[in-house]
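Quick illustration, no need to memorize.
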Amino acid sequence: MAMTKVVGDMGKKPEHPGWQPYMLRDQREAHGLTQEQAGEQLRKVAERHRLRGVPAGNPQTISQHELGEVYPGPHYRRAYALLYRATDVQLGFRDPLPGEEEATFSLTPMDHQHNGGHVLAVERALMHLAPGTAGVDAIGFQQRVMDAWKRRHTGGDTTATTLVLVGGYAGSGKSELARFLSELTGWPLLDKDPMSRALVEALLVELGSEPNDRQSELYRSRVRPLEYECLLKATYSNIDCGISSVVTAPFVAEMVDEGWMRRLENRCAARGVTVAPVWVRCDPESMREYIGQRSAARDTWKLQNWDEYISSLDLELRPVVPHLVADNRFGSAVSLADRARLALGMVS
């Protein structure tokens, strides 16, 4: 039975508004699990979905989370959501965002897909991609993704080629969103970091810098442009062959450069390709959590100089052309994507 007492005396911390730890316990009990069983299941979920930030799902950790002594990190929250098939709001991790859907919807077993629950899950995840500017065809983009997904599973390919650009600051969740769109559509994913990291690190060392340098003028003026040139050439290789693609990188300088965006759009338009820019919005606290959890050496400077780093960001930055915005504050967009994966049987 759910507790009705105020959770402020249960360890709720002001930096996590809306946190209600007892709801996590209620979910566990509703699933008939002891803390020991929940810990074991949590470890299995983390391994299955490659969530590296879940080092210990032991009863003590579960208890600390449920009592509000320790606020779970981002990978723990995702693991709980996948285990209990619930949203962050339903698990008591935070308050809902304005307009965010709180209602529970049932997940459709893959052997009963005819009832449409799996379609609803995908549609709700895609609805998180909202217009960021007037004039952008959000419904049209959502429909292209839905069509690609449906055709992928019923035979045939989409005839309209689409280039999806997913941009955002480090730790915003852009790679997760891009991966989800790629999984849905079958469109190839081009992610700047894994594509170019080895070359970038070697080039930085050759130029007399450190392999993890991402702050210096040397990197910005001599290395970064080459990264994006390589990414763009790979993108054009797909586009020239009529292959829809999902491309992700920060695009912080590129998406605010009207000339750069117009040149891209014009080249694509000449080949009948639709460009769909997506900006991933996130809050600083969540970005810091994700950056810390992924433990990438290239992020060391950011974490050690967080105040300086975050003050250099324009959190209201948006692309200068019509675009979509994925609101991933508190991991909300990634959470919806995870639930859609569950509904589709992409994960178990």
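Confidence is low (pLDDT under 50) at residues 1-14, 102-115.
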